[in-house]
Amino acid sequence: MTLFPDTPAFSTASMLRRDQWLIRLRWFAALGLFLGVVLLKTIKLGPPTSIFWMGVAVGVLILLNLVYLIFASDKMRLEMPKLVILLNVQMVMDLLVLTLLVYLTGSEESPLTFFYVFHIILASIIFPGGFSYLYSMLVIILYSSLLLMEHSIYVDHICFFHEIHLADDIRIVIAIWFIVVVTMTVSAYLAQSVTERHRRVREKLEIANQKLQEINQTKTTFFRYASHEMKSPVATVQSTLMVIDDVLGEKIDDRVKDMVRRAISRTKEMIEMLKDLADLTYGNFQERQKFEELDLNAFLAELVSDAQPNIDRKNQIISYQAPEMPCKYFGDSNALNKIFVNLISNAIRYTQDQGEIKVVLKQNSRGYLVVVSDNGSGIPDSEQVNIFKEFYRTPSARKQISEGTGLGLAIVMRMVELHDGSIQVESREGYGSKFTITLPIEENL
Ligand code: ADP
Question: Is 303 in the pocket of ligand 1 (CB under 6 A)?
Fold first, then answer.
């Protein structure tokens, strides 16, 4: 068993993050101690020389933290063992400074003794199992040595809060020492078991998540492969049926002709479904994603004008409203195409003849909003949570419009997520629907 398990929790990157966290925490500790020193000086509590040396100790802590910070960029190049040694050096130096502060504030009388617990908790968070016990041992050694030294002739006790010297009564000293030792050991045990349990759960979740991703990838590959491979034979069947319909249409009897036409329409539906299935997997493969800079304004204007023939067929009106300037956006034009073609075609399909469809593009500080609205059939409240699910079609849609796979909005959702965006629907049955897409702008643009 190695001291540092080879898990994401103990990778070089996570140790570096912990190092930065420790440096940040130390700034807060130094600030708190500095304020404490100022307060003690103001209310004139404690001997002035002690307060002076406490100030010096805080200064040392700040200096040390500056050194750690300055060398932080060099640490990026360090290998794991050296990084661990550096982190331990920091923790031990902190403990030495704290022991000095404990001494200056009265040793066994010092309330700062409680701060040792923070170090033990920190050790259990930063290092793997066992380290918190090592640190609790170190704390006990440092604290015991301090008390022993005070009972020797080399170090004088500092009466910080009052003139009565607790250290005169050895029974009190032993009682306090015992309580400190128990507190440190129990803290080490508690901190250790809580963090270990948390780590184990996290690792299990990470493994489960990885497995799920693999399963999802296999499923996606299967969908892509199956839809791609099935499209050409179905297309061949469809064109053969069309040829039969064209060439023999007049010669075959009406019953057969009707069957051939129904078969053609079925193959058409099937090709649509296969196309949608392929679209659903789009973006799951790195090599197919192509982000590029484009003008969202011109892009949408073109899609709206492409929709005109379908709009005319239903005598509908479509309008497009946008700022009068190019709207730069970094996105995947193929995926964006799928989003807006699906939304506009839904709006056309689920809106009665002479209905009205509006596409609006707005810009705000976070990115773009694209609203596609219509005054069509609308979606009942109870159905709105389901419409983004794969293969879901509302019962009224099934009844009124036979064509449709129930995959359109699921595709839209995936493509929006690919752009870190979001989609919202507002709708009232009988009055129309409004789909709002938010596309955040990449910060590095
Ligand atoms: P499809 O249109 O193939 O049924 P979608 O995933 O695109 O599948 O849409 C799912 C369901 O959401 C549709 O069946 C329809 O009931 C509803 N829907 C989507 N867009 C609209 C809209 N603009 N107006 C009314 N209902 C809509």
Answer: no
Q: What residue owns the CA closest to ligand 1's atom 16?
A: 394
Average confidence (pLDDT) over 230-243? 90
Of all protein residues, whose CA lies closest to atom 13 belonging to ligand 1? 393
Distance between Cα 288 and ligand 1 center (Å): 27
Q: In what order do the strands lie in the sheet with 317-321?
A: 317-321, 356-364, 367-374, 432-440, 422-428
* pLDDT computed for residue 444 by the predictor: 40
Please choose from 273, 344, 393 the residue to mutate so as to test ligand 1's pocket, defined by most ligand atoms within 8 A of CB.
Answer: 393
DSSP state string for 249-275: TTTS-HHHHHHHHHHHHHHHHHHHHHH
What are the boundaries of each domain within the chain?
A: 12-163, 289-444
What is the 225 CA–ligand 1 centroid distance (Å)?
27
Predicted pLDDT of residue 366: 86
Region 232-257 average pLDDT: 87
The Å distance, Cα 219 to ligand 1 centre, comes to: 25
- Token pair of 241, please? 């049926």
Please tell me if the CB atom of residue 405 comes closer than 6 angstroms to any atom of ligand 1. Answer: yes
167 close to 151: Cβ distance less than 8 angstroms: yes
Provide the mean pLDDT of the chain. 87
404 lines ligand 1 (CB under 6 A): yes
Q: How many residues can be counted in the chain? A: 445
| Tens digits of residue pLDDT in 358-393 | 999 999 888 999 999 999 999 999 999 999 998 888
Do the bridges between strand 328-332 and strand 356-364 make them parallel or antiparallel, or are there none, so unpaired?
A: unpaired
- Burial class from Cβ neighbours inside 10 Å (0-12, 13-18, 19+) for residue 197 reads exposed
Which tens digit of pLDDT belongs to each residue from 392-406?
A: 888 888 887 777 888
Q: State the number of CA atoms in the 13 A half-sphere of 43 facing the CB.
A: 8
Indicate which atom in ligand 1 lies nearest the CA of residue 396.
16
CATH fold of 289-444 reads Heat Shock Protein 90 (3.30.565)
The pLDDT score that the predictor gives to residue 287 is 43
pTM over 0.85: no
Which atom of ligand 1 is the closest one to the Cα of 409? 6
Q: Check pocket membership of 336 for ligand 1, CB cut-off 6 A.
A: no
